[in-house]
Amino acid sequence: MRVFSNYFLITVFFVLCSIQLNAQADCVLGVGVTSDSVLISVFQLNPMQSQQLEKFNAELKYRHEILENKLENVRKRHPQSTVSDLSKLAGEYTSIMDSMALVQTMIDKRLLTVFNEKQYNLYRNLCREVSKSPFIVAPTIYGDTVVVKKRSPFLDNLPDRN
Fold this sequence. Notes:
mainly alpha, 5 helices
């Protein structure tokens, strides 16, 4: 009986160790991948935000071109005759692909910072619907966002000097 419980415990241990827990994937906007018109219509971007989107697209394109050139240079110049050479090539390739993903994340976060509160909440709700983790950013407050300012009552008693 003791042998059975040892095998059972060992089996349970290996099963638990082999389970991979995956965090929710990031909820990307896909600037540069998703059509600008789609992003503009879904999030109802104002002209200033649309202009920022165009700038972010241009920056993303520029950065990706640089990384794609690096990737092409790695492919052309790296020896591929041995397993260690291929392993090193794979490491360099993965590094560049990770850089591309980081650039995409950075640009998406920049766009999110120009969202007003309602747009950002829409983004968060859409992410929840598809079970992805939204990026946490502090949206900038612009003129199209209503800001309520409290006025101190003692200011009403002061004479107007304008």
